[in-house]
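Structure, all three chains, one model.
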Amino acid sequence: MDLFTQILLAIAKILFVVIVAVGAFAPVLLWAERRQSAMMQDRVGPHRAHIPLPRSVVEGLRLTLKPLEAGIFGSFFAAGLAIVALVILLLSSRETLFGQEAKTYYLAVVGFGILGVLARVGHKVHGGIVESGGKIALLGLLHPLADAIKMIFKEDFVPPKADKLLFSIAPILTMVTAIAAFAVVPFADTLFLECATDVVPRDVATVMACDGSGGVATAIPMQIASLDIGILFIFAIAGTGVVGAAIGGYSSDNKYSLMGGLRAASQMVSYEVALGLTIVPCFMIYDSLRLEEIVMWQHEAGIWGIFIPPLTIACVLYLFAAIAETKRVPFDLPEGESELVGGYLTEYSGMKFGMFFAGEFVEVVVLGALATVLFFGGWDVPFLYRSGFDLPGTWELVIPMTDWVIQDTIALQHWAVIVIQVIAFLLKIAILMWLQLMIRWTLPRFRYDQIMKVCWKGLLPLSIANILLTGIIVLLWT
Amino acid sequence: MELGLGAYLTFASVLFGIGAVGFLVRRNALVQLMSIELMLNSVNVVLVAANRFHPDNHAGQVFAFFVIAVAAAEAAVGLAILIALYRLNRNIETDRAHVLKH
Amino acid sequence: MTDAKFLLFFFCAAIALAGAIGTIASKLPLRAAMSLLVTIIALAGLYLTLDAQLLAAIQVLVYAGAVVVLFVFVIMLIGPAPETSSAPGSVVWRMLSLVGIAMITATFAFSFVDVASTWVAPPAGFGTVRGVAGEMYTKALVPFEIVAMTLTTAIVGALAIARSKTASELAEMKRRRVAEDASAAAQPAE
């Protein structure tokens, strides 16, 4: 592989991570958070940001409502008729009905069913738009966008006595370190460039090139940097992020900011220690610091980390420490508005505040990704291998009246496997983030001494005990 | 131009010099502690570079690791002393810490 | 040494030296701490040119994540405290010491500049986690344990030095002083 391709690939991977982590996940997380909180507190939630439609278009939409209703009815009716036809075929053991084979009716059931569901969704969206007088709110998904536009164009106020240089560096430091931690996270299995449209053999270490040249296929690791230090990189980078919050609070020239910065620094440093110790059992069991090897271990062993007993404890402790590390409710003492106005963010406005904000959300995504890799198998999908799905057992399922067969092995092209793995990885992160949201909107805020007590007297001894336990288990096991 | 071991040693000696100057010129105990960190770091550069020069074992890197650990301990104790000094004197200038001199 | 490493060396070295000068020259302690952070990260880059990956990570982890944060923490606790005047009469000595150090540094630097050397290709696993840790836990286990004890002692020592007296301790001191005064009053000196 020449240098040019390498650089191109690196840029592509970086763009993917930045777009997925910052461009998509952070706003969606923000949206989900607002939706969830609105649902739990019985509020309307984000709904004001919208794209207005001209009146004539709205009138046109109003006219299509009736036809759509008819369409829903028609689709479901047709699907129902097809089902009836299938039942008749099955019971009467005839080959055809009205000159059509059973295959046609199967296709009709699925096709009209999907059409009906789509029409129903369309009708609901249509109705919503028409009822609101032509406002496309997209469930409030436009709200983060509106927030971003607002923050960019807002006045960027710097307190007159603030240290301007440090005041500007702090948000950059927070956001950049949060994004940079993504560099070592693998988001899919190794991609073999020449074999993208072929089925790759399942358990071969070096895949031969599929173009018939006899060479070895170009293996592209699906992560930005494959470092030997792996997780240590994430912790080193995240440790630098602490400084951002601290100097942000100090340079604001505001007592509340100072207190917030102090709290943020001490809380993050404390929980970083706990966070580091909670995942030590993972290294002992996976026998590697490289994230891609950790995922590969779980993939090959066919068991996710969370189902291995000492790691189950580690996972609970990790999630606890991770939520505290991101300084979110119930650990948001550094910015607790009932005590410190806005904590270290008090004086920040405009895009600088936006950067802190984005940094916080990206941090949630990063820690979710790390939890996914360590405890939930990373990109691993149960029964999905390089060659495609391989469900347990050997069986065949013939769909009655047709020659269609469902097998226990479903061969998939290489690119499809990779895409499924990426989607699975993102889905796992999304679920973990949702879990964090639920915790956030369920629990009240701790007191500061309680936070410190939990960290130093609870998490730390527990995680050290867990390391001992894992050591004993590993010694007995091997 | 070949980048030899000399480049690293030169760099380390300059860094050590800057640290030493900082320690002697500045009277703020905080900055003095930071200068000590600079000097310790310059030593680490020499250790790691020498280890890379003789790469059969990791003695230099292990030693550098110990230096980092001791530097962390030194920073913790030094800053604790500094806080105690501040509580006593209401400033952290080493020139003014002369209670036992007279 | 490849060209990329050559460039990386000069880039990191320049940034590290700039950061070091910033550390000792800035009037505000917090800016000094930030410059120290820059130096430390640049030094981590230098370690990467020397194939010492683990040490680079530890450098950032310990210094940026702990030591600099500790400095920032103390600066936040005691306030900005810019440097005021220094003790009189020390200027000459200070200049002399400065010149002396500059000369020593220059001597070292110029004597090292010509140390040309050819690098040996490192064996597989050089500077990796497995390599360094394997050596640390076999050959250097005793020093490792001693360092661990040093760190524990340092934590306890730092706590003992920096903590303020608790309310109960103050009450105890006051009670003892009152008792001493009372005993002194009961037996008046001649």
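The CA atoms of residues 53 and 359 of chain A lie 34 Å apart.
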